[in-house]
Write a structure and sequence with these properties.
With 223 residues, the protein is an all-alpha fold. It has a single domain, classed as 3 helical TM bundles of succinate and fumarate reductases, CATH 1.20.1300. Helix content is 77%, strand content 0%. The longest helix has 31 residues, at 54-84. The chain crosses the membrane at residues 55-79, 106-126, 157-178, 199-219.
């Protein structure tokens, strides 16, 4: 099984598709919780209650682990493809002219997404979730978390960079959604077009929700 996953093109695609689905779920949960920001500091306090639910406590690290695996495995595959120099590759070799722009540039899109994830981790996660995990006097309360988000997203350059990131992520998700299901065997002529449409709708709703949060603070709303 190990050799199949590492050496087989199908095995590699399987890991990417399953870990990619973890990414979708992680972003959906993250978006749902962030939408509480639009309700002000009092509404955002509900996030702490939700995060303390047993199912969420279990889900978050699992989904985050799948997210990390997706990124690291994609980088490893890209390195293997680079070393192969024309041999059989994970991405099925030379891409057809009919392949979508997102499919042809998944690595570039992935690197951009990764860079902004690192920015997000240093500006938010390290100051909020990490402090809560470590405990002690450095824990950040809900009102302080809200103030941190509001302060950063009111900075035009910072907020605009985030919005650009969301729409780069949109390209990545629109291809990755239906591609993941295709790898898992749902690739017939009936379902593939449907999954492509569902992927576009899903990614668009997710991206618009994230974007609305930035615009909310950028235009001076919120406490």
């Amino acid at each position: 099984m190990k050799l199949f996953v590492i050496n087989s093109s199908i095995g590699r695609k399987l890991i990417m598709s399953i870990s990619g689905l973890f990414l979708f779920l992680f972003l959906t949960l993250h978006c749902f919780l962030n939408m509480f920001l639009l309700g002000g500091p009092s509404a955002y306090t509900a996030v702490n209650d939700i995060m303390e639910l047993p199912i969420v406590t279990v889900m978050v690290p699992i989904l985050a682990a799948g997210f990390v695996i997706h990124i690291l495995y994609a980088l490893w595959l890209s390195w293997q493809n680079y070393r192969a120099r024309g041999e059989v590759r994970y991405a099925s070799g030379k891409k057809s002219e009919t392949t979508s722009w997102a499919a042809r540039n998944m690595l570039i899109l992935g690197v951009i997404v990764l860079l902004f994830i690192l920015l997000h981790l240093t500006q938010f996660w390290a100051k909020m979730q990490l402090q809560a995990f470590l405990g002690g006097a450095n824990q950040v309360h809900a009102d302080e978390s809200y103030a941190l988000v509001a302060t950063l997203f009111r900075q035009p350059i910072f907020s605009i960079l985030y919005i650009i990131w969301y729409w780069v992520l949109w390209f990545h998700l629109t291809h990755g959604f239906w591609s993941s299901f295709q790898t898992l065997g749902i690739d017939n002529k009936k379902w593939q077009p449907r999954l492509q449409v569902i992927g576009i709708i899903y990614a668009t709703i997710l991206t618009l929700c994230f974007t609305s949060i930035n615009l909310y603070f950028l235009f001076g709303f919120g406490a």
